[in-house]
Amino acid sequence: MTFLDELSRFLGSENVRAQILANLLDHCYLALLPLVFGAVLAIAAGWLGRGRRRVRGVLFVLSNLLYTIPSLALFMVIPGIIGTKFTSSANVVVGLTVYTTALLVRPVLDALDAVPPHVVASATALGYRPARRFFAVELPLAVPVLAAGVRVASVSNISLVSVGALIGTGGLGVLFTDGFQRVYFAPIVVGIVLTLLLALVVDLLLVALRRSLTPWDRAAPGKAEVSAA
Amino acid sequence: MGIEFRGVTKKYPDGTVAVDDLSLTVEDGTITVLVGPSGCGKTTSLRMINRMIEPTAGTVLLDGQDIRESDPAVLRRGIGYVIQHAGLFPHRTVLGNVATVPLLSGWDRRKARQRAAELLETVGLPAELGRRYPAQLSGGQQQRVGVARALAADAPVLLMDEPFSAVDPVVRQGLQDELLRLQARLGKTIVFVTHDIDEAIRLGDKVAVLRVGGRLAQYGTPADVLRHPVDDFVAGFVGKDRGYRGLSFLSAEGVRVEDVPTIRVGSAPDVVEPHWRLAVNDEGEPRGWLPPDSTVDGELAESDLVAGGSLYRQGDPIRGALDAALSSPAGLGVVVDEGGKAIGVVTAHQVLDVIEGHPEGVGGA
To answer: Which of A126, A129, A141 faces B101 most closely, judged by CB atoms?
Structure first.
């Protein structure tokens, strides 16, 4: 029996297809919810750390440390910390939120610090209060760098969600554990292909989102990305 | 709305004194220029007016009221502010930039944008620029947008921190002229910071010369500062060629404007003449010079002419008359009236004679 026969028989079952779709949807939300939470937390950290060297330093060390914790270990430790069930998908969401935040803290701070001081000064001089200035001027100008960080984090999340299958939290990783247990390649290949496709689609959506948020960035002369994108 | 500094000092924690016991009154509706070398505290002084920097000692009064009694954000919305490089928001269109303060002050969006469009016109920018982003504008255009943005809330006070120093000299002069024209119409109280004494003299009703360490060296009218510098520092700062700078204060009265043979563009000159002739159009506006002994085939066209130097508008500072004479191929500076019509010529000698009649550059404006 060739591999293709095996694959078509695997996908021929309606139950299997329904199961794969459910896995895919789980995978989406397990990967993308943390992306949103992580971005919000990283922006909050950016708000605290911008222009303060000491706070910045602490945030960088902390985010590097968090990112070095192995994912499987993190997923297993979280129930002990926040009191969820061992197989709860919340563990993956929280764990990936930690990673996303850790990944985004540096780009957010770099982007905020790169906002030209004379632009910030003129915003202040025109009568912006600090909070409004942050959201109306500093954050929008940080979007290009922030978006690049979010794209990296989205790919990282989509790949890491698979690990959650080892502790039984669903997602496309289930196809891998299933395939390994049964020494059956079809689910593994389907899992890999769908993971890659998901990563690609999410990345394209993020690029579109970034472009719609930064029409001004394309206006700047001499931006190579404009013609490339 | 007048501004008063009363014994204002700004000292930083490391002991640097940026401004030292500054007392100064800026009169309502005038342009006051703070000028001095870098480190003289001119920008610090400016930023103490809108509370971007808080003084260590002393008081700043705006319209007789201590500014510390106002909410800083609200105070700033009532004070226009223009900085070097304009400080425009790169992520907002030109209209969005200009509408900033009205929107902050709670105007509705439509009214704010309408006001912004009016202001683009006020500062001489075409309406279609409104949809562009700052990165798509030239430096001079950005600076105009910066001025429009500062004027948007109709604030009676305008603070300008080296607004024109990042643009090239030709554009800068255009912007300066524009500012004077606007000021004649709007009558704002403007505090203008520059390190360029020429700019200070050109723009200021009053000039405050500051020395390093933030001490006020001299405060007076430009003519006063040029004519009677209080000490060597001020004398050195206003420059050794102050006779020439003083020209800006001479009126043109006393320069004899002479008749000049003219010839109309489009006419057919049938005689050859041994001297320069000024070519004018149907409106009498100068178009160029026809050199001596020229022959023209048929009608006189612009291409037959030698481009003629700068023009001297009657009533402008006399330096312009000297420029016109020296830059003219005929050695004759063309004098035009308010409408741009040629009314005669001056020679460099005549202009210099007038200047020598005022050996110290004296001679009221």
So the answer is: A126
Domain span at residue B180 reads 3-239
Task: From B23, B20, B6, select the one nearest B215 (Cα to Cα).
Answer: B20
pLDDT tens-digit series, residues B216-242: 999 999 888 887 888 888 888 887 444
C-alpha to C-alpha distances, A226 to A200, A218, A221, A229, nearest whole angstrom: 20, 6, 9, 6
Q: Does residue A204 belong to the interface with chain B, where contact is any CB pair within 8 Å?
A: no
pLDDT above 60 for A229: no
Q: Tell me whether strands B57-62 and B311-313 are parallel, antiparallel or unpaired.
A: unpaired
DSSP category for residue B304 = G
pLDDT at A142 over 70: yes
Domain count, chain B: 2
B74/chain A closest Cα distance in angstroms: 6
Q: Is the pLDDT of residue B201 over 60?
A: yes
Q: How many CB atoms lie within 10 A of CB B282?
A: 8
Shared-domain flag, residues B306 and B207: no
Query: Which chain B residues in 104-163 lie under 8 Å from chain A, judged by CB atoms?
Result: 104-105, 132-133, 135-136, 149, 159
Verify that B154 and B17 share a domain, yes or no. Answer: yes
Residue type, A107: P
CA distance B199 to chain A (A): 22
* Interface touch B135/A124, C-beta < 8 Å: no
Of B90, B104, B135, the CB nearest to A126: B104
Strand positions, DSSP E, chain A? none
The CATH number that applies at residue B189 is 3.40.50.300
Please determine, for residue B364, whether its predicted confidence score (pLDDT) is greater than 70. Answer: no
Amino acid at residue number B357:
G
Q: What's the ipTM?
A: 0.80
List CB contacts (< 8 A) between B83 and chain A: 118, 121-122, 125
- Give the predicted TM-score (pTM) of the model: 0.71
Reported as a single tens digit per residue, the pLDDT across B239-298 is 744 444 444 445 455 677 777 778 888 887 777 777 888 888 888 888 888 888 887 777
